[in-house]
Amino acid sequence: MKNFLLIFLPAIILLSCEKPNPGAQLKHLNGYWEIDRVEFSEDSVKDYSMSPYVDFLHLKDKRGFRKKVQPHFDGSFTNAGQTEEITAKTENDSLRLYYKTPYSSWKETVITAEAGKLSLINANGVIYHYNKYEPIDVTADEKEE
What we know:
Number of strands: 10
InterPro entries: Lipocalin-like (IPR024311)
Number of helices: 3
CATH architecture: Beta Barrel
Radius of gyration: 19 Å
Order of helices and strands: HHEEEEEEEEEEH
Protein name: Lipocalin-like domain-containing protein
CATH topology: Lipocalin
Domain Lipocalin-like: 29-120
Low-confidence stretches: 8-16
Shape: globular
CATH class: Mainly Beta
Distance between the termini: 63 Å
Largest sheet: 8 strands, antiparallel, barrel
């Protein structure tokens, strides 16, 4: 029994410390993302209860774009900002997103990318937390009647 614990406990510790697979994270980036909160520091967090804009990310073969869009009640979107080119690269066991516009370029590191959650950190240490955008169903009341 002691031998079992000596092997089993370190294995669990190693597995729990495993970093996310950048390739697995990449497949979750596409779609509409709504900002949840921004952590400027440990003591400074801005919560967004509701934002009029969402970010649309589209990547194919590690290249794509991100743009801000404004959702409408009918399910359509209006472009609300400049389109940013994205190149995704795996560096130091992390997924990095390199952005480029005609005016600037920068990078962010993916902390978490799952089916419903996305967290990115920029070069200044600011962490952006997103939730997958879920459109408001304005026809729900009509269906109940």
